[in-house]
Sequence to fold (177 residues):
Amino acid sequence: MNTTAYLAALLGVLAGGCASGTDPAAGGLFKPMSALDYARLICRYAPIDDYATCVNGRLDTYENQVQPESPPQQATSGPFMVLLGGDHYYGWYRSHPFAADFRVSNGRTLCRGAYSALTGSVDAVFAVHCDDGRSGTAQVVRDGSGRNGVGTIRLDDGGVGRVVFGREVLEGTPAAG
Fold:
């Protein structure tokens, strides 16, 4: 094989690692997400009578933002929401090149997650601990903008939930304040 073929194969492997499938925790550097994808996740537990209103409201907020886009330095923190067991946990995340953390609460239970490459975490997998004794992991992936994203949280009691984060997609929700 010649050098061009090797380079083409290498680029194919690298490009394949940039995108992920439908499960945000399946790996990859980013996941393409539409406004409708975010709206469906955020409104997942809305009562059936309110679901369409919720989705339409999220689409309107996301697609017709009244605030100017956040400056790049604000891309390292923002609102964070966990949908777990029918509850919405709202909070905030902070991110640095080699570490990140979040805190969320449903009003009764506080959960924290963190990872740090500097202390040995080889993957961007958050160790999660809740004040009710549950623990587990959360894995997130950003959308193409790098400012918003989704993920999956898995707790040791068998609970599995979804994560949604970012200023643009959570604007107007309790997570955004």
